[in-house]
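> call design_seq(struct)
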């Protein structure tokens, strides 16, 4: 009599996970609203440092949201999140400081 060899897949019941369409649509809507706000600011405001600051701020908001959603950073432990966010904050601070300092050279002439 032949024995039935069991395969690892015989005893497991694989269920297909529910599609994540709600999360995908939520992400799409949030990024669309932020981008729409950027377009609104682009057409309403004249060129000014405030307009530039708003664009930089909204770009940072979108970047953090994209990293949190698509790279699943928001599901990680807080220490890992801070080890990524804190250096980014310092790099932004460094860029602002260098741009401000670099601009003061032209004002001295």
């Amino acid at each position: 009599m032949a024995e039935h060899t069991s395969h690892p897949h015989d005893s497991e019941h694989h269920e297909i996970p529910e599609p994540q369409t709600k999360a995908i649509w939520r992400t799409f809507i949030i990024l669309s609203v932020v981008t729409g706000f950027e377009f609104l600011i682009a057409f309403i405001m004249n060129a000014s440092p405030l307009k530039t600051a708003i664009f930089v701020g909204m770009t940072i908001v979108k970047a953090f949201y994209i990293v949190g959603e698509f790279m699943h950073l928001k599901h990680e432990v807080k220490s890992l999140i801070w080890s990524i966010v804190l250096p980014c904050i310092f790099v932004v601070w460094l860029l602002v400081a260098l741009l401000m300092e670099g601009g003061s050279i032209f004002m001295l002439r």
